[in-house]
Description:
The complex is a heterodimer of chains A (about 300) and B (about 290). Chain A is an alpha/beta fold and about 300 residues long. Chain A is built from 11 helices and 10 strands. Chain A has a 6-stranded mixed sheet, with helices on both faces. Chain B is mostly helical and about 290 residues long. Chain B has 11 helices and no strands. Chain B has helices at about 1-25, 25-55, 70-80, 80-115, 115-130, 140-145, 150-175, 180-185, 190-230, 240-250, 250-280. The interface of A and B includes residues 119, 129 and 178 of A.
Amino acid sequence: MQTAETTQTPGSAGAGKIGAEAALDAHGVGKSHLQLQNVSKAFGDEWDRQHVISDMSLDIRPGKMTVVVGPSGCGKSTLVNLIAGYEQPDSGVILLDGNPVKGPGKDRMVVFQETALIPWQTTYQNVVFGPKLRGDLKGKALEDEAKRLLVKVGLGEFMHKYPLQLSGGMQRRAELARALINDPRVMIMDEPFRGLDAMSRGLMQEFFLRLFEENRRTNLFVTSEIDEAIFLADRLVILSNRPASVRKVIEIDLPRPRHYTMLNSPEAFAYKRDAMELLHEEAMKSFRTSSSSSTGGKQGFTSASGH
Amino acid sequence: MASVAQIDGSTPVVRRRSKLAKFMENPTIWRGLLAIVIFLAVWEVGARFDEWFGKEWTLPFIGLIPPPTAVFNAWLKIIPQAGYWDSWLQSFQRVLTGFGAAMLLGIPFGLALAVNKYFRDVFFPPFEVLRPIPPLAWVPASLIFWPTNEMSIAFVTFLGAFFTIVINVLGGARTIDVRYLRAAQSMGASQWDLFSKIILPGTLPSIFTGAAVGMGITWEVVLAAEMISGGGTQGSGGLGFFIWNSYMGGSLEQVVVGMISIGIAGFLSSSAIRWLGDRLMPWRRLF
Ligand SMILES: Nc1ncnc2c1ncn2[C@@H]1O[C@H](COP(=O)(O)OP(=O)(O)OP(=O)(O)O)[C@@H](O)[C@H]1O
Ligand SMILES: [Mg+2]
């Protein structure tokens, strides 16, 4: 009850109505504008405070694929949790079409780092879970829509299997269907293809890209793979080392629809070189900061042996 | 209609036969049966050694217990007796009462500990102090506490399963993947939805683990309690008393019959739990 209220209070629905309409295209697909303004987040008690995100401002533009890359452990999942409303920022605001994000809601669907399909529900039950809870899509209409999406992601024959009976790639596709049926205004993907073997990963990227290019729903995609990032992105956001902030935004001007061979083009290669340079710099920083505190003794040893 | 019914009726019979044949072809089954046969044979020979080779050939331990054939004969004699089945019934009733009460109170209590911080703050510390006390240590206290023998047995039995079930439910509910809860929240789940659709089914496997372990403890406690309280003048019946009584009467065969009966009763109980678990958690049957 409480969560339903925070996401769809009558007041906010009314206030956001103009914004909501403006944020949909002719086919009713979500093209919302998501903005982070000076967002900071830290964990832990005062004496042991870990600043994970610091003064981050980021524009996730309507109808664009915004891909966020950053060194491992820099705070990417924390960023996702803030946008999804699972965690609250310590300072700064997150705006969805101008309205502050207060908690989780169906307008921002998350596809998680490892599969988060509910194991005791079949693929079909997982997909209809959200609409059934809310009652906004019912009976035959819901069944048809769920089946349409399942067929679309290639799981028509597997809809009555349990998640653990599916392969890794199938689980990822089932999760896409589960998110899409809620018709979110922004899709948030947190390293969705991590853990897949190279072959299925490549296939999933292409599949996902086709899905995106079909209707260009506003999308935030988090990854630590630079090739994946360039292949998918309209805008590539490179995060700094922890505490994370935006290091640089690169507009990726490769034509759409994209094909994986484009990754071999000189343009893609130039993007990759620029991005790698920045990422390497940031990764080295993390290496330095984490080792500086522990190498004190070692330095002492080398200098002592030098004499 | 009639012919259809016949055709329908005959196919399952054929199927069942081939199923049985397949079952018997399974090497796991064969190995299991072979192991049991060898075990019985060794027992028989070992127990009869002194009969065949003279008193000085009485083997330690195994030579002192009755051979399986003698046990089997004793069993055949007991099976028609109503008293024997009464023992079964009484023990089963006690186990089911204690176990049922433990499930009925333990599952909600464990869930409440898991989902409510205030409840946990208040009730978890005393729970943790009482938990390590072995159920049998409660026997004297509960004999004083409860008006009848039967109620003390029920109480001690209940305690045996209760703590195990609660600790399993609590552990299971607390380790549910937070991403399931978050995904459900994003899709608009209410607090009640989260509880009934995520936390409860997510805790089911632990509930069944707790039930299986708790069932074992319940049998242990019931039998011990029956032996303790049945040693007096008016016996309280049950398989525990059956064993004790046979021992007092000097019938070693009957003691072994009682022991095997308990083994079978325990096996039936845990099979029932496993069967129910498979039914309620089809997602865990993967192959
Ligand atoms: N709830 C929390 N409480 C305490 N610390 C946390 C919490 N969530 C995240 N952190 C810390 O924040 C840092 C960033 O974590 P996060 O998961 O956001 O990184 P990430 O970039 O997603 O890493 P990965 O590449 O491994 O997915 C980590 O050091 C982690 O320990
Ligand atoms: Mg992460």
